[in-house]
Prior knowledge:
Blueprint: E1 2-7, E2 13-18, E3 24-28, H1 38-48, H2 55-61, E4 69-72, H3 79-89, H4 91-109, H5 116-127, H6 136-156, E5 158-162
Antiparallel strand pairs: 1-2, 1-5, 2-3, 3-4
Amino acid sequence: MLVVFAHSTAGPTVATLHRADGVVLQLPGYDRAYRVPHDLAHFATERAFEMSGGVFGSIAAGAVFATMRVLSGRPRHDAAARSKRVLDANKLSLNRAEVIAGMIHHAVETGVPEQAPALVRKAWGALETGELPWADDRITEAVRALSELAVDFEAAGTVRVTWPAHLIATPPPPRGIRRGRRGRT
Length: 185
């Protein structure tokens, strides 16, 4: 999925998402107070941590958040139901992505990238009882990726990135539909 982050005429950042199914969506940002767009932090973090159930993996799978709008293309006949299934299935992953991306965003935005591992560990501890699933080098990679994207965004006012196909969430099947052969009587 191609994602284009750009400044909008209204001020905040806008992400335009070109999904594989031909649908083009717009995701408005709410980040006027930040130098680094928050959704760009989601992109860099979710990609570095291979979070298929985060914002971008969910959108690529068919999720549409309430603030988004379709710019072009023809959504599937069951687009609303599919979106709900994907969002419901990824609720926990989306929450994790929000918190962890927020920590990476904070480290880059405030210019203290060396604090990112401690911030992520602390945030993880507030979310989960288990051990953090990412090593410090993965956290450092997320910070590096976001820092580089932020520099490009500031210089050009736009950034074009691709969401990897292997990180697209798997949509759950519709409820009530039986798959396979029926037994013969």
